[in-house]
């Protein structure tokens, strides 16, 4: 079983937002030392809870501070942008971290409608997503555009011996079908849907898959999990995330509250949602959470899980990843050999 990380640079009450960005870079260094496979970064805009707005910029900072772990976007919301410009950005990233760059793309806006229109005023931009994916793959790998294409003869630089690995992200059957059609690796956002539709999307992807960028299906799932030294402490820490999820049901978004401020009275409907959330939650000691994750991976027939963890305290977040690394017996990264040694 391979474990990877997705971080969103979560905003926290009582802490400047810029600290969340720096904590993300520190977490990447920490997870590399622990032996995690990938470190992915999300893209959201004008959302009070998440300040990770520019994964391509943050990836460069992570690349400068790491040497082994794969670094990726989860993802670039492609309808907002020119595929050629994205290809240039990720070619530069690949030059900074050769052979370590994952380019995850998605169709969702990662924002509200007004913000999405500021990023790209074309209300029909998402309709061109399949064509954008095809163009992006060609530009990041140096393939020539077909006759008649306005980009024929145009190159995304710098060129090198390696190229970013394109991934399709999704939380529905649409992304699964597109990934299968183009022969791309596929990642399902389990943490967004609480698992709803995940098994069906993975089955669709495997059934429809045609060799393309890769020769056979390759899928992982992004799942929310939190481990602590005791089960009681894990559930205490979870109350911050729990409050955020309950509030979101009624359109209330804000920075993450510390556990001692997260408790409030819930309506009957909110309490029912809260209990359902707890029944599904991957929360507990390292071994307890690892057992739940292994069971989920076996059920969905995946050999890689991308873990996302929200805590108000960055040290608690880092400790959670430590405990899971121990429970899964991850091998810590080896220091790169020095020249002349």
UniProtKB/TrEMBL annotation:
<feature type="domain" description="Luciferase-like">
    <location>
        <begin position="1"/>
        <end position="302"/>
    </location>
</feature>
<dbReference type="GO" id="GO:0005829">
    <property type="term" value="C:cytosol"/>
</dbReference>
<dbReference type="InterPro" id="IPR011251">
    <property type="entry name" value="Luciferase-like_dom"/>
</dbReference>
<dbReference type="InterPro" id="IPR036661">
    <property type="entry name" value="Luciferase-like_sf"/>
</dbReference>
<dbReference type="InterPro" id="IPR019949">
    <property type="entry name" value="CmoO-like"/>
</dbReference>
<protein>
    <recommendedName>
        <fullName>Luciferase-like monooxygenase</fullName>
    </recommendedName>
</protein>
<dbReference type="GO" id="GO:0016705">
    <property type="term" value="F:oxidoreductase activity, acting on paired donors, with incorporation or reduction of molecular oxygen"/>
</dbReference>
<comment type="similarity">
    <text>To bacterial alkanal monooxygenase alpha and beta chains.</text>
</comment>
<dbReference type="Pfam" id="PF00296">
    <property type="entry name" value="Bac_luciferase"/>
</dbReference>
<dbReference type="InterPro" id="IPR050766">
    <property type="entry name" value="Bact_Lucif_Oxidored"/>
</dbReference>
């Amino acid at each position: 079983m391979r474990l990877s990380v997705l971080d969103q640079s979560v905003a926290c009450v009582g802490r400047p937002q810029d600290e969340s960005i720096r904590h993300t870079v520190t977490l990447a260094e920490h997870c590399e030392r622990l032996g995690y496979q990938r470190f992915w970064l999300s893209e959201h805009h004008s959302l009070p809870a998440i300040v990770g707005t520019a994964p391509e910029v943050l990836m460069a900072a992570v690349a400068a501070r790491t040497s082994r772990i794969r670094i990726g976007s989860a993802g670039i919301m492609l309808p907002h942008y020119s595929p050629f410009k994205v290809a240039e950005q990720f070619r530069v990233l690949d030059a900074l971290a050769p052979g370590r760059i994952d380019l995850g793309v998605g169709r969702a806006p990662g924002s509200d409608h007004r913000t999405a229109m500021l990023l790209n005023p074309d209300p029909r931009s998402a309709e061109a997503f399949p064509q954008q994916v095809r163009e992006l793959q060609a530009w990041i790998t140096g393939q020539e555009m077909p006759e008649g294409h306005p980009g024929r003869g145009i190159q995304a630089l710098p060129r090198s011996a390696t190229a970013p690995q394109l991934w399709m992200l999704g939380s529905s059957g649409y992304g699964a079908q597109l990934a299968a059609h183009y022969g791309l690796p596929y990642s399902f956002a389990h943490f967004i849907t609480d698992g709803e539709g995940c098994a069906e999307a993975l089955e669709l992807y495997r059934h429809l898959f045609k060799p393309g960028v890769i020769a056979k299906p390759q899928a992982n799932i992004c799942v929310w999990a939190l481990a602590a030294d005791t089960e009681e402490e894990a559930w205490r820490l979870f109350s911050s995330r729990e409050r955020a999820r309950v509030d979101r049901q009624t359109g209330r978004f804000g920075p993450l509250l510390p556990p001692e401020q997260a408790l409030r009275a819930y309506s009957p409907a909110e309490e029912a949602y809260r209990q359902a959330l707890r029944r599904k939650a991957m929360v507990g000691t390292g071994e307890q959470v690892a057992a739940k994750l292994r069971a989920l991976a076996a059920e969905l027939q995946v050999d890689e899980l991308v873990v996302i963890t929200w805590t108000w305290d960055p040290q608690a977040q880092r400790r959670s990843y430590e405990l899971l690394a121990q429970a899964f017996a991850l091998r810590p990264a080896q220091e790169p050999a020095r020249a002349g040694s």
